[in-house]
Amino acid sequence: MAEPLSTDPYKGVRDFYPADWRKMDALFSRIRETLLAWGYEEYNASPLERAELYEAKTSEEIVSEQTYTFMDRGDRKVTLRPEMTPTLARMVANKRRELAFPLRWFSIGNRFRYERPQKGRLREFYQADIDLVGLAEGEADIEIVRLASAILKAFGAAESDFVIRVNSRALLNAACKAAGLTGGDVRQYLRLLDKKAKMTPEAFVAASATISAKDPLSFIKPEAMETFIAKLAASGVGNAVFDPGITRGFDYYTGMVFEVYDTNPANPRALFGGGRYDGLVALWGGDPIPAVGFALGDVTLADFLETHGLLPKLNFGKPQLYIGTPKESDIPAAQAFADTLRAKGARVFVNLGTRALGDQIKDAVKRGIPYFAAYGADEVTSNTIRMKVLATGEEINLPVNELPARLRAGN
Amino acid sequence: MAEPLSTDPYKGVRDFYPADWRKMDALFSRIRETLLAWGYEEYNASPLERAELYEAKTSEEIVSEQTYTFMDRGDRKVTLRPEMTPTLARMVANKRRELAFPLRWFSIGNRFRYERPQKGRLREFYQADIDLVGLAEGEADIEIVRLASAILKAFGAAESDFVIRVNSRALLNAACKAAGLTGGDVRQYLRLLDKKAKMTPEAFVAASATISAKDPLSFIKPEAMETFIAKLAASGVGNAVFDPGITRGFDYYTGMVFEVYDTNPANPRALFGGGRYDGLVALWGGDPIPAVGFALGDVTLADFLETHGLLPKLNFGKPQLYIGTPKESDIPAAQAFADTLRAKGARVFVNLGTRALGDQIKDAVKRGIPYFAAYGADEVTSNTIRMKVLATGEEINLPVNELPARLRAGN
C-alpha cells in the first residue's frame, strides 16, 4: 500500500475505548436493572431490516433523507434501523398468536441515522426502547410515565431536575378538526408543531397561518390530560405538566405523548420521550394491538447526568488487583495464584512483561488499578502477601486466603 | 398499502424474543465475568467501518464475496464489520502513544457476513473477541490459550469435552520454505490447508500437488510447539495437542495459532480459535505491536454447550413475582407496593388488566413467573400477603416486609 490507512473511525460514529465503554455500560446497566425490577424483559433484533418496514410508517424526513439504505448482493433493499419501534411492532405481529399479552419489553442497542454529525447528533447512537404492548390507555400510560421517571430517579435525579411534559395526539387531532383542518393539513400542522422549539415565535405563527386560519391549539380540551396528571401525582410523579405543544416526530402516535425536559434552562432540548401508538402492529393485518412506550438515548442522558453531577462511578468491571512479578520465571506461579482469586470473584491483572517492580507499580497507577501485590518465591513460601493501596501508599500484610474478602470490601 | 407487510426479519438474521435473548445473555454474561476476572476490559466500536480497513488485510474471500459494502449518501464506501480484529488494530494504532501496554481487551457484539444462510451460518452472528496486545510470544500466548480453556471450564466443561489444537504460522512458513515454496505459493498452500477438513483426502493431495512437489508438512519442526504444550500442561491446560494442519483462515496471523474442537465425533467443526498477529497494527505506520487473541461465536458455543448439557439456566432477569390485582381500582396501590419491592432488588410484574384472579394466575404460569400474590384492599389493611408458589401450588402467608428476602432465596 502506498498511502497509510487512516486510523479514524467512519465519519459520525464513535470508537469506545474501555473508559468510554465503561461509561455506556454504567448508564445502560442502571437502566436495565430498573427495567428488570419492573418486570420488563429484554429482546433484540438485527440492525439489518427490510427497507419496506420504514417506508410504511416512520416519519418521511427520516426515511427519505436519514436512513442508511442499500441493496444487498441478492438485490434486496436493506435499511440499518434508524429506530426500534417498527422492529418491535413487526416482531409482535409475527408471533401475535403465541405471545402472552401484555408484553413488557425493552431493547438496548445501536440505531443509525445518516445525519450531518454535530454535537449530540451522531450517525450511530445507543438507545433503550421500552414498551408496554397489549393494553389500552389508562394504567398502562400511567406505568410508562412512572417508569420514565423511575429511570431518572434511579440515577439519583430529583423531581426538581426534570419536568415531564404530557399531551395527547387524540386531543391534538380533535383540536385540529375543531379548527377546521382535515387529512394532510392535520399531519402538516403536527409536524410544524414538532419543530416549534427550533423556530422563532414569529416564524412559527407565519408558517402556522399558511396551514390554518385559526389557531388549532386554542381548541384543545385539556380535561382528560388534567385527570391523567392528577393520577400521576397521586402515584408519586409530581413533576408532570400538560403541554399542548408536545407532538413527537413520528407519524405513528395515536394517544398520550410525552417528553422529558431538563429544568436547567441552559439545556432546553428534550431529553427523551414517547407515547401511545395503537395502530402500528395492525399494519401487518389482524386486530389492532394497543401499545405505549418510550426511548432513551445515550448522548442526551449522559449530558443530563453530567450537568447534575449524577454520572455513576466508572470503576465497574475494572481490575481490582495488579499482581507484580519480580522475575519472568515467577509468572506461572503468579497466574496460578491469580486463578485462585478469580475463582472467588476477584478481578486480577497479572504482569507478564520483564520490567522492574517499581515500573510495574507505576503501571498499576497509570491503569487506575487500586491494589498492587508482588508475587514471587517469597510469597509462594510464606503464603502471605504484602498488598499496597496505591491511592494512599499504605501497605498491608495479610494471609493470601484473606485477599478475596479484602478486595470485595475495597471495591 | 395494497399488500400486507411481511413480519419476517431480513433474510439470514435472527429476531431475539425475550427467551432467545436470555439465552444469549446467559452465554455472554458468563464469558464477560470470566474475562473481567482475568483483568480484561471491554471496548466497542460501530459496525460501520470504512471499507478500506478490510481491503487491506482480511482474507480475500471474505472481502470480495462476503462483506456488506455500500456507498453512503456522501459517497463514502462503508463496510459492516465482518470481524473485529481490524477494528481493534485500527483503534490501537490510533492511540498507540497514550495507551498503557499490554492491553487486555475484549469486545462482545454482532458481526456481518453476506453468506448463503444455513445451519450455523448466519448473516449476523454474535462474537466475543479477546486480545492481549503489546507482548511478544511466550507468556502472552500461554495466557490466551489458558483463557480460552478457562471460558469453557466456566460453563462446566471438562477437559475431556474439548481439545485445543495448536500450531504455529512461523513453523508452517519455515516448512513451506524448506519444501521450496515462495511468496504467493506459501499463501496458496496455507489457504488450501485451512480448507483441508472440508475436502476428501484425495482432493487435498491432488490440490496440494499443483502447488508443491514435496509435502510441506513433512518439513515441520515440532520442538517449539512441544515445549509450548508442555508449559500449557504445567499451567493446568492438559488437553492441548500439536496439529500441523491448523492454519486459521485470516492472512494476518504470524505465530501461534489454535483451534478448539469438540471431542464429540458427531460435531467435527472447530468451535473457535485464534492466534498471534504481530504485523497488523503496523499497517498504520510505526513500529509493529505484537498481539495475540481469539474469538468465540454464539452459535457454535451454544451448540457445544447444548450437546454436553452445559447451557446455563435461563431464568436470568425474569420477573420473580406476579402481583395480581383483584379489581382495577387496586392497581395504584399494587404498583406502590411493587415499588417498595423493586427498591429492594426484586423483579416484579403487576397485572394491569381487568381479568379475573384465576386468569391472572394462569397468566403467571404461562409466563414462567415462579410466585404469585394478589394485592388488594385486604392486603393493604393487614400488611400480610399470601404468596403462591406456582410450581407446587403451595401457599405461604407472610408479612410483606419479609417478601424481598424470600424472593431472593427462591431465585
Overview of this protein structure:
- The first copy, chain A, has 411 residues and is an alpha+beta fold.
- The first copy, chain A, folds into two domains: 18-178 and 213-307, BirA Bifunctional Protein, domain 2 (2-Layer Sandwich), CATH 3.30.930.10; 321-410, Rossmann fold (3-Layer(aba) Sandwich).
- Chain A has helices at 18-37, 52-57, 60-66, 85-94, 139-154, 169-178, 183-194, 201-211, 223-234, 298-307, 331-342, 357-367, 377-382, 403-410, and strands spanning 15-16, 41-42, 44-45, 48-50, 68-71, 77-80, 103-112, 124-133, 162-168, 240-242, 256-262, 270-276, 291-297, 321-324, 348-350, 371-374, 384-389, 395-399.
- In chain A, the strands form three sheets. An eight-stranded mixed sheet of chain A has the order 2-7-8-13-12-11-9-10.
- In chain A, helix 1 (18-37) runs antiparallel to helix 5 (139-154) and helix 7 runs antiparallel to helix 8 (201-211).
- In chain A, 44% of the residues are buried.
- Chains A and B meet through strand 1, helix 1, strand 2, strand 3 and strand 4 of A and strand 1, helix 1, strand 2, strand 3 and strand 4 of B.
- Strand 3 of chain A pairs antiparallel with strand 1 (15-16) of chain B.
